[in-house]
Structures are given as structure tokens and as C-alpha cells.
Amino acid sequence: MRLSFAPSKLSLFLFTSASLFLQGCSEAPKAEQAAMHPAAVATTIATYEDAPFTIELPATLSGSKEVQVRARVTGILESRNFDEGQTVKQGQSLFTVDLAPYQLAVESAQAALNGAKASLVQAEREVKRLAKLRAEKSVSQRDYDNASSTQDIANTTLEAAKVALKEAQLNLEYAQVKAPVAGVVGREFVSVGTFVSGPDLLLTQITQFDPIRLRFGISEREQLQMRQDVANGSLSLPEKGQWHTSIKLQDGSLSNKSGKVNFSDVRINPNTGTSELQAIIPNTDFELRPGQFVRVMLSGAVRKNAFVIPQRAVLDNGTGKFVYVVAKNEQGGTIARPAPVEVGEWIQKPDNQGDKNFWLIKSGIQQGDEVIIDGMAKIFFPGMPVAVNNATNNVSAE
Predict the structure, then answer these.
(1) DSSP β-bridge partners for residue 324
(2) Across residues 179-185, what is the average pLDDT?
(3) Using N-to-C axis directions, what is the helix angle for 141-174 and 100-135, rounded to 10°?
(4) Three-class SS of residue 177?
(5) Are the CB atoms for 368 and 315 separated by under 8 Å?
(6) Which residues are CB-neighbours of 384 under 8 A, at least 6 positions away?
(7) Residue 179 has pLDDT above 90, yes or no
(8) I need a surface site. Which of 214, 216, 234, 266 has the fewest CB within 10 A?
């Protein structure tokens, strides 16, 4: 038996069937959602707190003093008194220039000084003798004045002889080229037997490793942002700009050396767009070496009234970062609602939950929001039912 429908009845039948099919499809997820067990999650309450503000920047190390060693006198270089790469003390002899000419100069100056002393003694005796005769009017005033002038000249000659002797002794000392600072001496640039023409010839270099200098730059943009944050009260900087400095080595490990910023240049380098800062770091064991590239971690500043959330709670959907916040749906059920957030600095600190890595949240959550920090992998879609199975804890920056 064949069934036939009129065109109008056929259209009504198809429309009714499609409507019932679509209604069934739309109600299926709701039914599935209602039947789905809530995801077990752990949460924390977003509360305002003061959080440490740190900056990590590339930096280079250099000796606190890097000194060029030069001879102050001329002569043949007789000996080298150090091993290349040796640690030397301040005042230690490094090179010896031929001493004989300078020793002779000292002896000559000493003889000239002795002669000047003898001349002065003779002049003094002559003045005393003529003074008695002048009192008896046995000699003229002119003879007495001449004797007095001779004594004055002898005094001047003696002082000049003393200066000449000091100069000769100083040159003799300069012939022993000594380390001007303590540090590690580099390689020699001039071999023994070479004629040293004076200060224009570089003999070697000394680098002072302890303490060592840490140099780095902060960009103009970062400085402007910090000044704005200080002005609006959201950031407190270290007093007098004395940031505490820690050093991260190339392998990611932290050095046990630390110090404080002791210099901040007011000028902006036009080539790099940064201003230079410097810190002096104790380095008694010479672990840190000049020329090393490291990363400096600046601490001592504080973010005021900030939200700090464990990093694992912050997710990324490809278009931005977000967190899940516990909320209520229209039926009063507890669900996970996504909240886009803007993150700030990466904060590392231990807390009583075993967390170490945190994000500072600049915007996107409010005081009192219950943020999901564990169980996000069980949340398959926004608005999924959740069950908070922990006693909520406030994340502290202390």
C-alpha cells in the first residue's frame, strides 16, 4: 500500500520532524551536563597583599680594579718576579729594571748631601767668628753680611741636596716595578732583556677579583613604568636605590654571592636605551670571573595591594591568560567560570602549601574571588560543575 501526501501536508511533516530533532540535540548536552559528576577542585581566596617585586636582567662581571702596570723609569728589564696568572699582593715586586745606574745615582746624591752639610757647618762657624769680631769692630759690616749670605746659600744647597737624594732613592725604588693593587696578574707583554723606555710601555695588567663589579642596565621603558607605579602608590622601591642583588649563573644556578647597587647612572645610553647600574660583590674565593655573562636578580621593592596566584592556576588559551573562578549558575549550582587576567611579575617564594612559583595578577580578578588552583585538568568546558573539596586558603606573600 502506497502512502501519498499533499505538498502542504508533506512540508508540515518535515518541519515538525526537524524541530523535534533539533530540540532533542539541544537538550542532550544539558542532560549530559546534569548527569556529569562535578570536578573536584582546590581553591584559594583572592586577597590584597604586599608582594615582593623583583627584576631579572642580563649583566656582565668585571674586576673592581683593572690596572695597567708600567715602569716609571727607563732601563734594561733584568727580571720578571711573578708567574703569569698568579695572585699578587699590593706592593709585591713584579719586574726589576737594571738597578746599577739608580744605585749609583743614590750614592752620588748622598755624597752631594754630605758636602752640602759640611759647607753649611763651615758657613755657620764663619758667621759666629765674624759676629765676635764685628762686636769688637774688628771687621766691617760688609764682611759679616757676606758671611751671613754664604750661610743662607749653604742652607739652600743642603735642602736641594736632600731633595736630590729623595729623587734618586725614589727612582731606585721605581726600578723595582711593584703591584699597585692586589689581584691576579696577567701575562707579560715585555720579555726580560728588553729596554724599557718608561711609562709609555705596558708591562702587564692586574685585575682585582675581590670584590668584583657587576654591571647591568635598566631600560628607559621599565624605569618610566616603575616611576608611574611609585607615583600611584602601587610600588615601593628600595631606599636610595640600593637594590639587593643576587646572581644567576649560566647553568641557572644561583651564586652564593650577593651585594647591593651602589651606583646608578642618571644618563640614558642612546645606543641601548638603558641607564647603567653597578653593584660591588664580595668574591673571596674567586668563583666569579671578569667577563662572565650572568643574570642579576634585583630585589628589595614591594608591590602594594597585589593579588598573587600560584602559576599552575594561570592557563593560556592561545589568545591570552585566564584563571577559573568558582561561581554560581542560574540553577544555583557551583561551576568553574573562566576569568581573563593580566599577569605581572613572576614571583618565586615558598609558602605553606609547597608552592614556589607565583604570578602577580594585575587585573581580571577581584577581592574575595575564589580562584581554582588545583583540578583544572578535570574542567572540560567553561561552566562545568565543580566541587570544592578543600578548606580555602589565602595565599600569602610573606
Answers:
(1) 338
(2) 92
(3) 160
(4) strand
(5) no
(6) 33, 36, 38, 39, 335, 336
(7) yes
(8) 266
- How many other C-beta atoms are found inside a 10 Å radius of the C-beta of residue 70? 17
- ∠ CA(258), CA(263), CA(267), 5° rounding? 135
Residue 356 has pLDDT above 80, yes or no: no
pTM: 0.65
Is residue 150 within 8 Å of residue 123, measured between CB atoms? yes
The x, y and z cell numbers of residue 157, run together, are 744647597
* Cell numbers linked to 50: 604586599
Strand 254-264 and strand 202-219: pairing?
A: unpaired
Query: In the chain, what percentage of residues exceed pLDDT 70?
Result: 87
Buried b (16+ CB within 10 A) or exposed e, 240-269: eeebbbbbeeeeeeeeebbbbbbeeeeeee
Contacts of 197 (CB under 8 A, 6+ apart): 74
| Closest by Cα among 61, 70, 150, 167 to 112 | 167
Q: Are 337 and 324 in contact (CB under 8 A)?
A: yes
Q: What is the pLDDT of residues 219-241, one digit of tens each?
A: 999 999 999 999 998 899 999 88
Written as one letter, the residue type at 107 is E
C-alpha cell at 103: 744605585
The span from the CA of 96 to the CA of 19, in Å, is: 106
Confirm if 310 and 51 have CB atoms less than 8 A apart.
no
